[in-house]
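Narrative of activities, Objective 1.

The group set out to show that a structural description can be obtained from nothing but a protein's sequence at a throughput compatible with the screening campaign. Below is one input-output pair from the validation batch, recorded exactly as produced.
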Amino acid sequence: MLSLKGVYKRYGSNEVVRGMDLELRPGECYGLLGPNGAGKTTTLRLALGLTEPDCGEITLLGEPVPKRAREARLRLGVVPQADNLDPDFTVSENLLVYGRYFGLSEGQIRARIPQLLDFAGLTLRAQSRIQALSGGMKRRLALARALVNDPDLIFLDEPSTGLDPQARHLIWERLRQLLGQGKTILLTTHFMDEAERLCNRLSVMDRGRLICTGSPQELVASQIEPQVVEVFGDGAGDWARDHGDRLCQRCEKTGETVFCYTREGEPILRTLEGREDLRYLHRRANLEDVFLKLTGRDLRD
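Output recorded for this entry:
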């Protein structure tokens, strides 16, 4: 469905994508995770043929990119990170106009519009202007618009950013429906729970390189200790100095919170019993722990 082999892209002295090797299998949801500036959006632009690589080979839906990117994009759906719906048109008109870009006749598009509106939960909003829609409605419309040409492959660039929990869960439900129909999805996201719920495989990307690839379960099992104890409070630092290195495989302090990564949580919990100055949370390790271990806790601008 998509193949990148040895792809590099540099802007001036900044090497944004460095030796990218990536392959998508038919019918899977593949996640691309990384902090801001990791190179995710540039990777999508390279795959779409919107940015030309400095070197390497890209094949999209059997077509060489960028040479025949236009032909490949006819079988592709894209939900961009930023809202680019046309405010001059109604909900239905946005679908109609967009469908024309793919060479579909007006009759073909109008026949698909009721199904797309139903999929997006916007049937009663068909004649609404874009300005009258909530953020969740706009994202659902952007997803429906990406399906107007019945694509084989869908690129989703942070599709649930800025949505409330209800809207996010509805988007996830719709994406699972698409996967059930045999569609292939490439997803970038900052929500680790989104990646865990949707992705068959994913890669963590940082500074232009893929650091690791596997299923969410495989990465949690292979990259991180199985249990985490989070200790909160003003005395967390003192507690960590007394007990952290002795009882944890790895201990990290961020603000007033100490994260203890361990194979066995019970010895740590015993030291916290009766400590009224501290609060704590004992849980299993998750994909966010893996992400932070591999890319660090520092903010990226």
